[in-house]
Every structure is written in C-alpha cells, then in structure tokens.
Amino acid sequence: MNAAVEFLVRIVIKEAWARKKLVAVLYILVSAVFAALAWVWPQVYTSSATIIVDDRNIIRPLMDGTAQTTALTEPLKFAKQMMESRTTLREVLLVGGWITEDTPQTQVDSLIDSARSKTEISNTGKKIVHISFKDRQAERAYLAAKAMSEIFIRESYLTKQRESEAAYKFINEQAEGYLRKLQAADLAIKEFREKNVDSTPGAMQAANSRILELTRSIEDIDIELLAEESKLAAQKEQLAGGGGAKNTASIEREAVLRARVTTLKAQLEDLRLIYKDTYPDIVQIKAQIASTEIQIRREIDSRSLNLNAANEDLADSPIAQALRSDILVTETALSTLKSRKAQFTVLLENERQKVNRINAVEAEITELTRDSTVNKTKYNQLIEQRESARITRDMDRAKQGINARIQEAAFLPVTPKGLRFIHLIVIGLLFSFGVPVAVVFGLTILDQKVRDQRVISEKLQLPVLANVYQVKSNSEKRADFSKKMMIVAIVVLTWTVYGYEIWLKVQG
Amino acid sequence: MSIIESAFLKNQKEKGEDATEEKGLKQHANKPITEPVTSSQVSGGSTVKQNIARMKQSKLYSKEELSERGLISKEASDRKLMNEYRNLRTNLLASSHSKNFVTLITSIDPSFDTSKMTANLAATFALDEGKTSVVINADVNSDKSNELFNVEPSFGLVDFIESDEMPIDQVIYETPINRLRYIPIGLNAESSAEHFSGQRMKKTMASIVARYPERYIFVNAPSIASSADTRILLDISHKVILAVPYGLSTEEDIRQAVLSIGPEKLSGIVLEEF
User: Fold this and answer.
1) How high is the pLDDT of residue B191?
2) Structural domain includes residue B236
3) A180, B56, B235, B249: least surrounded by Cβ within 10 Å?
4) Position B30 in a domain
5) Which residues of A touch B269 (CB under 8 A)?
C-alpha cells in the first residue's frame, strides 16, 4: 500500500477509535436512514423498444432513378419531436390507462408533462432509436413503451406518405400548369397563322422571286421604252426633213458639182502641161472650179442650215406618208409600254410590302414558337418527374419506401430500474461506514492538531527521540476488547436488520 | 544495555571528543556511591556494579504487576516499546557530557500526564546493571507515580526542601523495580507555592547528582504550558524531554513550548501514541 494512504488509514482508524461514540451514533443513524429509505423507495420499471430505420431495402436498387426511396434522415429528431407532441402523449396515456376520454384537461396536461419526463429517447448510430418509458408500474411502462414504438412506426410511414403525396400533388399541378401554357402557345400560333395566310411557309421565297421577276420586267420595259422613244424621235426628224431623207437632193446636187470640179481639175492639169497659168483657158477653168466649189459650199451650208424650204419637198411624199404611219405605230407601242411599266411598279411595291409583312409575322411566330418550345420542354420534364413522384407515392402508400421496423419490441419489465431497493441497501452499507469515516476525517483536518510525526521532525525541525505508547494494562485491554465487541455487535446487528429487510422484500 | 548500545556508546567515547570528560568520569567513579555501602576505597566499573548489586531490594514487581501498571521490563512481551525506550536512552546517553545527568520530562499539554513515561524511561536506565535511576515527582497535581511505584509516602521532595534537618534518605523510597528509586512530591505540597525556586532545591539536586555517578535523575515536571514550576525546574536540569501526545496540540503549541524550554536545553521530543 502507498505510504501516504497507509498513513491516512492509520490516522482515520485512530481518530475513529478516539471518537468511538460519535462514530457509532453516525453509523447507526446512517444505516437506519438508508434502511428506511430502501424500504419506502418507489420502484421504477423501465420498458424500452428499439427501432431500426433503414432505407437500404430491396426496393431501392430496383427503383433507382425511377422513384426516390427516402428514409427518415434524422430518426432521433423525428422521434423526439413526435414524443414532444401532445397528441402522441395523449394517445400513450390513453393506451396506458392513465386517462380516459373523460379525464379533465388540467389533469391530462399534468400527466402529459410527467409522461414527457418519463420518456427517454436515445440512439445508437443514425438508424437505431431507443424509446424507453419509466413508471412505477411495470405493466404501464410496458404499455407506454409499446404504444410509443408503434406510434413511431405509424407516424414515420404517415409522414413519408404525406410528404410524397404533397410532392406528387405539387409536381402534378406544375405539369398541368405547363400543359395549359403549352396549349395556349400553340393556339396563339395557330390563330396568328390564320390571321396571316400569306405568311405560309415558302411565301417569303415566292415573294422574293416575284420581286426579282417584276424588277427584271420593269427593266426590260424601260429598255423597250428607250428604243421606241428614240425611234419616234428619228421618225419625227425624218418627217421634218432632217436626217438622211431631207438632204438627198442637195447631196445629189453636191455630188454632181463635185464631179464637175473633178473634171475641171483634170482639164486644168492637162492644160497646165501645155500652158501657162495665164493661159485664158486655164484662167477660165480656174474660175469655173472656184465657182463650182462655192456652189458646193452653198449646198453644204444650206443642208446644214436645214432650211425648211427644202422640206417642202417631202411633205407630200410617199416617204412622209410612210413615216407618219410609222410614227403612229411607235407612239402606240410607247403608250402600251408605259402603262405596263406603271402596272409592274405597283405590283413590285405590293410585293415589297408583302415581304415586310412576312418578316413581321415571322418574328412574331418565332416568338410564339419559342414560348411553345420552352413550355414543351418543361412539360416533358415535369411529366417524367410526375411519374417518378407517382411511383414514389404509390410506394409509400404500399409502405415500401422506407423500412422502419421494431427491432426489439417493448417488454414487460421484471426488475425495477434505476435506484432500487438493493442499491439503497448497498449504498446504506457503504455509507454507514463512509459517513463516519468522512466525518472523523473532516474533524481531524479541521482541528489542526499535530498527528503526523513528520510535521515535528521535518516541518518544525525538532529532534524526535522516540515514539512511545502506553502499555495497556489487562483491565484496559479487557475494556478495549469489550468496546470492540460492542462495535462488532452494533455492526452485526445492523447487518442483521438489513438482512431481515432484504428477506422481507424478497418474500414480497 | 544491549550489545549494540554498548558498542555505540563505546564508539562515542573512542572518538575522544572530550578526554577530560573521561577523566572526570573516572574521578566520579571513585566517589562513594551506593547507599548500603560506604565505598570510599572502591573504584572501577565492575566495583560499581557490585556495589549497585548490593542495593537494598525488598520486593519486586511480578511480570503481571508490571504489565498491569503499564511499565516495561526485560521480560515484557512488548519488544517494540522496549526498543523505543532503549533508543531514547541511547540518545540521551550519547549526548551527555557528564556521567550522569538530570532529565526533565514535561508535557506539552496539562491534560497529558508524563508520570508513566518518566517511570518507564527511568526503568529503562535501571535495566542496565551498571546504572541506577531516580524518579523525582515534581508535579504537585499528579500522584500517579505513587500508584506506579506502589509507594505511600509520608514525606517528599517539598518536605525535604522546606525542612533543614531532614536527611535526604528519608524521602528516597525504594520501588518494586530493580535499581530504581523514587522521590515523591510530598504530602504538604501546594500547587501555588514556589517550592523549587530557592537555593535549597538547586543544592538538593546537585547533591543527588553528585552522590552517585551512575545514578540518573528523572524529574516528572508539570506541563510546560501551565506551570511556572517547570520553568524553574528547567534551570536545574541538564536535559529536557518534551512529551507530545498524538492529536493534542497544534504546531503553534509545539513551537511555543520549544521556545519556552529553549532550544539548547531541549534534548528532543518524545511522541506518544503517534
């Protein structure tokens, strides 16, 4: 034994001996108190049930992706919430027979509070929940624990069912909402298309090609118009004597004149070979040439001056008559072309407007189609989800979604739990020794007297010569012995009383 | 005296701490010692022993009587207690400079009576055939010693001090323990009286000490805490033993008592029932 402990034990024994009477009185008192306590201590029975909440059942892998197998994520929390609820506790009280339907509310309230304090919920890991209930009657403890575990199972299923039902309902509503939106969008497209018949698919292309065609036609007409107009101008000029027709006579005269000049010049050249320029023939010829050239110039000048006097030659000529009929034809053609061009231009304008309209319609339709597409995508998704939700709901209805089961059913407790008779007896036996020892020790510490040799030798540094004691005389020894016997007798008597009490309890 | 004890004391002497002391001892040894013999011619330890052996001894305690009174003896079964007292004796002898000395035994608290401790210490010294011891009861309030030694005194120390004619022999009583003599306090003693303060007391003690060199005197004094007598008796004592019983005094009490005695006089502390 440790030296310090040994010293302590020695001191306590010595002090206890020195305070025999106090120790004896305390011993008897403590023993009596605990014996009495043990006798009257209420017995508390505890019944408990164990529940396993597991989502790893066979359904899960089978239904993977199709339905959600949901477990109670926090069974302990769920159980605690459930056991806090008045309805649950009321049901438990009814089952346990504490109350009937007619029990006044105030009494029910206090009973519910006490039931709450008697309930204990704990867990092992995440999936195992223990529910235990304490009561003075074993039967009632059992009934309450049983009821609680059953309510837990029932409520866990109900909760899941409610949850999946609500989820299904929500998704269904959403899906229907989208369906309505989708239908509305499609209808809008239809109506719009009806309103804008032109804007059938391909109308744009047709319009474009038409515009192209029309433009080309107008261009052609323009060319024709130009041709006809120039033709008309030429004919009119011709008719007025201008141009080739008007000067024919003049040109003919000019040609005769030029031929004469040429002849004269050839005569002149011949004469010059023989004669001098002063030769009269030569002078004469020269004068003739000059006057002929003047005439030529006059012809040219008169032609270029376009003298009206010359047209008069044409006025009633057959050429003029032909020209006049030609001009009439040309003018008619010109007029026709102009009216065609005007018509084509109108058509082109129409086509252009149509194209613009088609563009606007296309934009509108794109918008409407986009709405429709979005709604369609959402709706398809929701339909899928709704089916998953439906299966989940059906599974929960069939109690297949989660797997909460009572692992260990509540039992009828045989031995009372908690501080029991036997505990109090043991405590009494221990305390009956412990309390006097503690008191003696306390007193010893309190009075500050020197009880340790070391205090003198080490702390006060005084020489200790010897440690003597009184030799007990025989009579003293006898007295001590009888005192010891007395103590033993008290202890034995106490134990006898305890034994008798135990025997009585066992006998019931 | 045990063999070990003898060896220890011999060793102490051989150290030659004080040669003159040894000389002095021998001189003392030459002086007359025992009562029945006028031994002026005798010298040497063996002679002393012979003389002591001739001490008058009418009746001795039986073993039962000793144990009934809580006194130790050679025959006593309690070897442990015996050894404690022997150690105490060895300690006292080892520190003594003169052959014999006066030891004052005082209690730290008036509630503890040192009569039995004094008697046992004296008896331990007397176990040695070469030594005698005298117990002087100086505690006016205690007549326990009378019971211990089975003595019914007619005179005592106080009577001797007060009277001029009374011979010392008249107050020295024989006890039922070998080589142990007893001087009771006397019948006329009063606790208030300053019996020990006079010169007569000093002379008495000196004469008792001087008379027999192998005689050791043990004075059973009242508690240091309560009695002025004890303070006076300190002067005439060579050694002081402070008896400290278990669980009766605080550290401060002990400190005070040691201060009163004076550290130079205090041989040491004897614990009781620790």
Assistant:
1) 61
2) yes
3) B56
4) no
5) 456, 462-465
